[in-house]
Design goal:
- There is one protein chain.
- It is built from 5 helices and 2 strands.
- Helix content is 72%, strand content 2%.
- With 172 residues, it is mainly α.
- The chain has a two-stranded antiparallel sheet.
- It has one domain.
- The chain starts with 8 loop residues before the first helix and ends in a 6-residue tail after the last helix.
- A hairpin with a 3-residue loop joins strand 1 (129-130) and strand 2.
Length: 172
Amino acid sequence: MTPAKDATPWLQVASKLGRLLENLLLSVLLLGMIGLASTQILLRWSGSGSLAWGDEAVRLAVLWIAMIAGIASAREDRHISIAVLPRFLSAKGRAVAAVVVDLFTVMVCLTLAWYGYKMVALAYEFKDLLLDGLPAWPFQAVIPVAFLVIAYRYLVWTARRLRTLISGGKSG
């Protein structure tokens, strides 16, 4: 999330560090996924078989990339939206609608985080396994964590928009 212009220097550094970490993690996961998928294809093509855990690892990488990309898009307030209603609203109406949408996003993300947590807890309780014998829950934990981070970010976006709305558009 881009810190406000009046943010303290440490908050600006933390924001830049978070952006770097998210982008680095996305890049490493994407390159690893492409490398593993390519290896799987080459092994099958050569008749050598494939890595037993390869396809499952690629699916897990897709999950992690999707969740981290969701976090990154929330950082910039770039979630998918259909902008039909705002065309018919005044500037203040658009601001109010944005607050309502942000609050709805927070509620949905918190709900998904809760059920994601329940899923991970069940995987832990039943000792689910992935990738030829590794516990499943650490790989699945990205789901509740990511939705909590997204909810937090949209709560911050809501606070910023409310502050701007209350002050009449004078603060950012």
